[in-house]
UniProtKB/TrEMBL annotation:
<dbReference type="InterPro" id="IPR044643">
    <property type="entry name" value="TrpF_fam"/>
</dbReference>
<keyword id="KW-0028">Amino-acid biosynthesis</keyword>
<dbReference type="InterPro" id="IPR011060">
    <property type="entry name" value="RibuloseP-bd_barrel"/>
</dbReference>
<keyword id="KW-0057">Aromatic amino acid biosynthesis</keyword>
<dbReference type="Pfam" id="PF00697">
    <property type="entry name" value="PRAI"/>
</dbReference>
<dbReference type="GO" id="GO:0000162">
    <property type="term" value="P:L-tryptophan biosynthetic process"/>
</dbReference>
<dbReference type="InterPro" id="IPR013785">
    <property type="entry name" value="Aldolase_TIM"/>
</dbReference>
<comment type="similarity">
    <text>Belongs to the TrpF family.</text>
</comment>
<keyword id="KW-0413">Isomerase</keyword>
<protein>
    <recommendedName>
        <fullName>N-(5'-phosphoribosyl)anthranilate isomerase</fullName>
        <ecNumber>5.3.1.24</ecNumber>
    </recommendedName>
</protein>
<keyword id="KW-0822">Tryptophan biosynthesis</keyword>
<feature type="domain" description="N-(5'phosphoribosyl) anthranilate isomerase (PRAI)">
    <location>
        <begin position="4"/>
        <end position="200"/>
    </location>
</feature>
<comment type="pathway">
    <text>Amino-acid biosynthesis; L-tryptophan biosynthesis; L-tryptophan from chorismate: step 3/5.</text>
</comment>
<dbReference type="GO" id="GO:0004640">
    <property type="term" value="F:phosphoribosylanthranilate isomerase activity"/>
</dbReference>
<dbReference type="InterPro" id="IPR001240">
    <property type="entry name" value="PRAI_dom"/>
</dbReference>
Amino acid sequence: MVRVKICGLTNKESAWAAVEAGADAIGFVFAEGRRRITPVLAREIIRSLPPYITTTGVFVNEELNQVNQIADFCRLDLLQLHGDETPEYCNRAVRPVVKTIHMGAGVPDDEYIQNRYGERVRAFLLDTFVAGATGGTGQTFPWSSVQKMRIRTPIILAGGLHPVNVAEAIRLTQPFSVDVSSGVETNGQKDPAKMREFVHAVRSCSPVFFGDPH
Ligand SMILES: O=C(O)c1ccccc1NCC(=O)[C@H](O)[C@H](O)COP(=O)(O)O
């Protein structure tokens, strides 16, 4: 079953709507941008959630002590790092790390990435390279490039997914999980109906998987 993470939640209502839509994981952005949330509010939301929902904190080149303090304060389960964080940085993080690979027109040097980060991260999140941005852009990248990659660590597919294109994206990339933000928003706010449609689209196309997932 392909897991679903809904990212960029900024208030309790939308976090609960994501959970009620069936998301396995939710994400809070602590980096600069319109979806930024304060640690105090994220902690309050996380404390209110039911069990078995994985909470993720999104950071971009943040000072490691600060990341670790926020992880402890909010009781985050995972850290999603969207910048130039090194393997050593990932090693010293107090929570398991999901490291973003920004996908451009070609295939990245995945063997190099796997060798450097493979032992230190829980998963790689593939997101679209957009000049001047680090995530949450709503832009897709060519999914066919994922088929050429030899990453052995679980892959989370992100970047411009929405309820209509996610089934095709899963078919082409066979990820462990998908991650969405812009594609379940209306006028910049999380839309409960779109979140439900997104989760439904993923559940409807997910095969029961017995093989070696990406
Ligand atoms: O959402 C942001 O504002 C953001 C800012 C800086 C780094 C990461 C950010 N978001 C991460 C995500 O929401 C997702 O993991 C991913 O980028 C997919 O976003 P989208 O293409 O909007 O579905």
